[in-house]
Amino acid sequence: MAPTLTASPLTRKAGTSWPETWQHCLAAAPEAFRDDRVLNLWNAGWHADGRALPATSPVDGTPIAGPPRLDRAVARQAVRAALDQHRAWRHVPPAERRARVAATLDALATHRDLLALLLVWEIGKPWRLARADVDRAVDGVRWYVDGIEPMIAGRAPLDGPVSNIASWNYPMSVLVHALLVQVLAGNAVIAKTPTDGGVACLTLACALAAREGLPVTLVSGSGGELSQALVRAPEIGCVSFVGGRDTGAAVATAVTDLGKRHVLEQEGLNTWGIWNHSDWDTFGALVPTLFDYGKQRCTAYPRFVVQRDLFDAFLAAYLPAVRALRVGHPLAVVHPDDPYPDLDLGPVINAAKAKELRDQVTEAVDRGAVPLFRGDPATARFMPGQDTSAYVQPVTLLDPPRSSPLHHAEPFGPVDTVVLVDTEAELLAAMNASNGALVATLSTDDRATFERLAPQIRAFKIGHGRPRSRGDRDELFGGLGASWRGAFVGGELLVRAVTQGPAGERLPGNFPEYQLMP
User: Fold this and answer.
1) Which terminus of the chain faces fewer neighbouring Cβ atoms within 10 Å, N or C?
2) Which GO terms describe its molecular function (predicted)?
3) Are residues 510 and 486 in contact, defined by beta-carbon separation less than 8 angstroms?
4) Buried b (16+ CB within 10 A) or exposed e, 407-430
5) Residue 135 maps to which CATH number?
6) pTM summary value
7) For residue range 196-255, what is the model confidence (pLDDT) as tens digits?
């Protein structure tokens, strides 16, 4: 009898442990890192203030650096210092601003792999997606560096710095990208590190920017503690927020009451409708890409609205695709020198979120949802004995009950829901379940059907059989309904949102007093 072959246990890729990664940070930016913590950046200097909270990596529970949370009084000092920086920076000639931002981009590109590795450890991004996050930030801002002059012609920086409060899922391609474009447009900038992850990656990126003389402030703290300084302070010229609707609603109330410039990107239930559709090969090939980073992104598609007559064909294309998803530890390899594993998703942001998702799924099934697919943890790529508490295997549910959060809200994790419909009216009602979304897609063979139905879907971007994304360079971005408040962004609109134009200018966006589409 031939001997039974057993798979070799996985191990961590050589040179990627958290202590090694931290040592690289200390070497790359010693001014911003200490042996046991990161520092806050304000008044053009690094400060060992704030109480550093303990933190663990969602990857395997390894202790990592936590955010050094400032109190309200120090945050106010930081904002006042940012105003002084702003008043000086707004007079720096555009050519010099371009040169300094370009030098920052070169430095970010030099440290690309370290920034990506920090994203793996801090927020659990698979390696391929972590590098893409860094690349999108660098390449996207280079587009603005090359074309900023006509965008700022006849415009001026704001009266005060731009305050940025963003979620943890895209520290580079959303937050750092926004900071650098805002600086390029003539503003000083303030960023609050997300509470749930990304503080070391943002600290390194901001250290590289500060070395080039960019007016960047980076602070940590709870939203409740710092909102008075970062949202309501009179020094702030604009508030840019990316996050959930509950927190976003509080920010929206504050900035509206104060008449302050704002850009508030909020969540929505992005939906994918299927009506009179037959190109299942294309659809099946797209399904795995929709699970990138465990659907922890603002343009994820967690809801499929399917014509009942096509449900069997939908399952025949969808189920093989989700069964093939690759889940696991983003640094686990067979041999230490192997390439990074090519995964579709790693952990969600933390164990608490994983438990929340599992509880929501259990409750939905108990109340009548039908489980169509559940991933098997035994097929995931885990190392022996590793902590897997932050991992959620992909799940698909049919018809979640209306009482479930999975019916009307974005789960922000690898949980899909399917709703069956019989009429076009039902299709549209189901696709508009969250009162506005950032993106949507309708798969239908007939172009005329798409063009007739698409204007009735409450999403800013609508794809015909293809997913839509936040976009890069000249692609605009915004949201309809409750998914967006304030100025739209993307391309020239991002610059217009953080600069002053002619008297009486109405920016494209979703404001209390008007909505203006680009």
Assistant:
1) N
2) oxidoreductase activity, acting on the aldehyde or oxo group of donors, NAD or NADP as acceptor
3) yes
4) bebbbbbbbbbbbbbeebeebbeb
5) 3.40.605.10
6) 0.95
7) 999 999 999 999 999 999 999 999 998 888 888 999 999 999 999 998 877 777 887 888
